[in-house]
Task: structure prediction
Amino acid sequence: MSAAGAPAPREGWLAAEVERELPGLHLHECELTVGRAGSLRGDSPADVEGRLRELSSRVRGSRAIGVRSEPVPGAYRVFFRQIGLDPDVERTPVEAAILERMLRGGFLTGGLLDDILLISLMDTGVPVWALDSETLDGPLGIRTSLEGETLGRSSEEPPLPAGRLVVADASTPLAPLFGACAAEHLPGRQTRRLTLFALRVPGVPQLYVEEALWSSASALEAP
Result:
């Protein structure tokens, strides 16, 4: 349980073909009510900005060089190759965040929600994504896309290639696996109900995933 009483993360569903072809892949999600005042896309309060400054001081060149050998980031690199992604081209989330820090000279604020998810990523190595709960149709899971499906419910989006691994709700693909979520399902400035999800791959302990979701939810629930 989180400090604000949110339920523990629950495990999402997997389509039969995904479970068969990718044993050890799991999706975990939790739903929460935002307690922070102001907009999710607005400026972060002092406590969150302070954590970003602390991380900027702690994450330096040596971490950038050695992150690939750390167990959790290393497990995501291995899994990227398993699903046909080259992690040296399409970087894993934690490697991408560290590279951005090195290029910019620090972790720059991207707004309250993005900052909290970034802090969780750097603390645990596990990426967390956020969706507007009001736009979802049931629990989240992982499946392959069907011929002619689009990302999200907008008919204006280009069709996805059939057979692509996606995070989906009961009726619609919401994001390519490890990719950006459909814009219409992202939390807006006034969103108050969020669904957070994380992807656990072989070699990543469940405890790390639960900690990433819990820490993100707790920071967002805090008044």
